Structure prediction request, 419 residues.
Amino acid sequence: MSVSSPSSSSAPAWPPTSSAGFPRIGSLPAYVFAQINAEKRERMDAGEDVIDLGMGNPDLGTPGHIVDELVAHAADPRHHRYSASRGIYGLREGMAEHYRDRYGVELDPETEVVVTIGAKEGIAHLMLAILGDGDTVLVPAPAYPIHTYSVVFAGGKVQTLPLADAGEGYVDADALFGAVEEACRTAESPPRVLLLSFPNNPTTLQAPAGFFERAVEVCLRNRLLLIHDFAYADFGFGEDPPSVLSVPGARDIAVEFFSMSKSYCMAGWRVGFCVGNPAMVGALTKIKSYLDYGIFQPIQIAAAHALRSGQECVGETREVYRRRAAALVGALATAGWDVAAPRATMFVWARIPQAFRAMSSIEFARHLLREANVVVSPGVGFGPEGEGHVRFALIEPESRLAEAGERIGRALARGPAED
Prediction:
């Protein structure tokens, strides 16, 4: 699939009557979750018990010692002024220490770390900083939407690559890197960037041993910059997910995005990082200096505290999601829907059951809402390559996930219905 930014040659209607009248917004597809969300809200407003496993919005509270650190500084008026758009030094230093202790990677807090307002903002602004009009970015798909649309917003083009499962929960590295080489060989103009994300959302696929060594080698050979979205760095249910920056030579071409949202249950706090290649980090730092004044300083102080404190809370959170995944997969199996247990992340990615495959993923998601009062994300929301699948977010306790499986089992037993 290829996705391009809108042409500026077509004049928008005047005066504009909706957001669709603005070129970049008008180029975006319809929000595939809109109708499901509207139906969910109607049912909840009517008092129905809906189990919402759609959006990956963590339900676990931020650990108390992190909240206490925020509270300790929030009332100090010295922290109520503008902060630094690239993040306070103590937080950048904390991130560098985290990479040193966790991955054996030495980072310079001044030139190789910039704080972002979550990884999503960072990726979007990095694309704006490094892409020229018409530059091509290679994105394995299905993909988290910002991986595609950050490129569109920046005036670039997206070429998606198939994201195949090699079995045992690992991505097929041969197929993926073969597709990268083919794209570079056949493109009219050379692609500029490869964007990866492992553990992967939505597919939950993990990178096998040696994957990032190959990624760096392929990118160096084809003159590609490499961006790795590492949002689920701490959510491997076996071996620890590897960092691309652990590979010798990676920092010549690569940056990695880390987020506090999932590992530390700080989704609403909006703290992320871009680390690695000084040129790309510098480009993002410069563009952010024009666009924002940074995050509320007590949040940054608390985030630095989280990185430097004991990490037991991270392991506890990971274990919660591992148990939840097992509970949901077991409940679905009892319901007659065999789904592979994820090797990583906080999601379950499931192919639509055989008897329902005449339905699109949106139709099937609506069916589960109407027949089981369970909300899931349709796979097509992650690109055409996600069609035929749905994604479950593990954002309810094990008991509720088991109940969701029971409800779905009854709905599946009744068979497809006319929606």
In short: The first strand starts at residue 2 and ends at 4. The chain has a mean pLDDT of 93. Residues 22-61+313-414 form a domain with the Aspartate Aminotransferase, domain 1 fold (CATH 3.90.1150.10).
